[in-house]
Amino acid sequence: MRIDMSEAKSFDPIPEGMYLCSIEKAKPKSTRKGQAMLNVCYNVEDGDYTGQKIFTNVMLEGAGAGFGAALLKAVKIDPTEDFEPDDLIGKELMVTVGIKIREDNGEPQNEVKKVAPIVRRKK
User: Fold this and answer.
1) Distance between CA atoms of residues 23 and 56, nearest Å
2) Number of structural domains in the chain
3) Is residue 50 part of a domain?
4) In CATH, what number is assigned to the domain containing residue 84?
5) Would you call 64 exposed, middle or buried from its count of C-beta atoms within 10 A (0-12, 13-18, 19+)?
6) Is pLDDT of 66 > 70?
7) How many Cα atoms occupy the beta-carbon half-sphere of 19 within 13 Å?
8) Which domain range does residue 62 map to?
């Protein structure tokens, strides 16, 4: 048996910056304290890192829920209304990415710093 690496993607973090992304997955989860969150997978849609994945947990309750509201606003969903995680799939937005060092293994990984709606320039 042999591994074919010809189309393998890198798991190295992408450089810090702002990227056009789509939401590929949004799975409901709970924190250890039982608070609602979404496990979100963003897909980079443009530039040198097209196809790279960025993963994050988005809080829907508690102190971190403001980020959840920002995510919904960025994809034009009213954060005061009910929504289903599948409502997010395929939506595009701008994602500001940073790099942090993982506490468990000391390796660098991407972290989502900010999300924003796509701003289209007028021609």
Assistant:
1) 11
2) 1
3) yes
4) 2.40.50
5) middle
6) yes
7) 26
8) 17-116
